[in-house]
Amino acid sequence: MATRKNAPSLRLGPPQKKTIAALISTGPQTPEEVVLQSAATADCDRNNLLNFECARVYLNVSRSTLLRYIYGRKVDAIKMDGGWKFRWEALERFVQRRTQKAA
Length: 103
Description:
By secondary structure, the protein is mainly alpha-helical. Helix content is 49%, strand content 9%. It has a single domain (30-102), classed as Orthogonal Bundle (Multidrug-efflux Transporter Regulator, Chain: A, Domain 2). Strands 1-3-2 form a three-stranded antiparallel beta sheet. Residues 7-12 have low confidence and may be disordered.
């Protein structure tokens, strides 16, 4: 009788509730935290355009949700150098609009 071996699969769950500053100081533990840390140290600067991963981490949404926001024109984005770029002010405006609707 043949037995099945279950190979462990790498699945990234929902974003962790840790802050990016906490991840940088303690070091990454899970694959999701590794992504968060790389996003935090890459191009996530308020003076520059933010890349897709930085925007996703800041908004705490999944990849598909952020793409839905872009294509639905709910958040301003620019396609540049083969990827989506965001202005920090545009993301802050988006968050303010969303929190006002919830209140």
